[in-house]
Design brief:
seven-stranded mixed beta sheet, 371 residues, 16% helix, single chain
């Protein structure tokens, strides 16, 4: 299932009063209130005291029935859906597909990883193999050749499943099919620790996973000395006709015992929540940000950053390095397949950012973060 929303024909949202760590009125982002809220965008960056750690394996049965109050903008209405069908701009034309052979694919061996290693390998789309604090962590693992409602992969998976070291943990950003892939997760031992958004534990329990940690925004748990914190994103959730926004969406901030941090954005549009992450956690070492699935813009701008917005998000986060993702793997939208990378590189140069801070890896490529 592709994930889309629009700024036109916004239908009013209904649901309970805002709850949780951050609530927003439709179309009008509001920062979280309370004494823990840090300085605004023009104020000095200062960290917020970390929340108390939740135990690994913590799930809850009392989450809100809906997380629709967390939406930054309403979901599309009937007229927007009709416009999309009328325009037919959901996939690139022949000219937009001709560069498929040029998509970067250069698989290599995984970096050697010890307890102090911080390394990333892009398996494709939003799937990364993270080596952090002696752990091997998968993000949104999708090793399937195709997902529901899309053509087959444009590039192979960058890391063969049989070449993976034992997986110590999995983080899931949200429940869309291109991020939560049942056939891939079925390959894992059921005792693999999985860190998931609020409301998503029942999906994993039905598949007999036994070490599920379910977190709200700004909640964290620790495994093997690595801190896993669930952080906000501008997106939504839906997997069936009846579960729109019934589970939360977000990204993950992983911190190793030496204090080094990787931010995995999951799926997100551009907005104030990214700067909030940077204010709460100054000095992020690496952010993994999406740059694809953004056209047509009127349809997708609330939930997917385009390349220029990804550069602004990187600056808002205050990270040292950025690695782009969510492109070159599946055809989810109408932009030409190579355009996300060319636009990103141009926007990076226009912003005057040092070239070595951009880790524009090929599918299968790896980088090791030096201390």
């Amino acid at each position: 299932m592709t994930e889309k929303t629009a700024r036109t024909d916004r239908t009013p949202l209904t649901g309970p009063a805002p709850t949780g760590s951050e609530a927003t009125a439709p179309g009008r982002p509001q920062p979280p209130a309370g004494p823990a809220h840090p300085a605004g965008p023009t104020g000095p960056a200062r960290p917020v005291a970390p929340a108390a750690l939740q135990p690994v394996g913590r799930t809850r049965a009392d989450w809100p029935r809906t997380f629709a109050d967390r939406l930054t903008a309403p979901l599309p209405g009937v007229r927007a859906m009709a416009r999309l069908a009328r325009e037919g701009t959901v996939r690139p034309g022949p000219d937009g597909l001709r560069d498929i052979p040029l998509l970067p694919f250069a698989p290599g061996p995984l970096p050697a990883a010890g307890p102090d290693t911080l390394a990333v390998t892009w398996a494709g789309h939003a799937s990364w193999v993270l080596r952090i604090g002696g752990l091997t962590v998968l993000t949104d693992p999708v090793w399937s050749r195709r997902i529901l409602g899309t053509p087959a992969r444009l590039t192979p998976v960058g890391v063969r499943w049989e070449d993976l070291p034992p997986v110590d943990a999995v983080v899931i950003s949200h429940n869309h099919f291109d991020h939560l892939d049942a056939p891939t997760l079925k390959r894992l031992p059921r005792r693999t620790p999985v860190f998931v958004p609020a409301g998503l534990a029942p999906w994993f329990r039905r598949r007999r996973f036994t070490r599920i940690t379910e977190l709200d925004w700004w909640e964290a748990a620790e495994l093997g000395g690595v801190r896993f914190e669930f952080v906000p994103a501008h997106h939504w959730s839906k997997r069936t006709l009846l579960d729109t926004c019934r589970s939360l969406w977000g990204g993950w901030l992983l911190t190793d015992p030496l204090g080094r941090r990787i931010h995995f954005a999951g799926d997100t549009g551009y907005g104030h929540r990214l700067a909030e992450i940077g204010r709460r956690h100054p000095g992020i070492d690496l952010t993994l940000l999406p740059i694809g699935a953004y056209a047509p813009r009127w349809w997708l701008r609330d939930v997917h950053t385009d390349p220029e917005e990804a550069v602004r998000a990187f600056q808002d986060l205050g990270a040292r390095h950025m690695a782009p993702m969510h492109w070159a793997t599946f055809v989810l939208s109408a932009e030409p397949v190579l355009e996300p990378l060319t636009r990103l590189r141009a926007a990076w140069a226009d912003a005057g950012l040092a070239p070595d801070r951009l880790w524009d890896l090929p599918v299968g490529g790896s980088r090791v973060l030096a201390p």
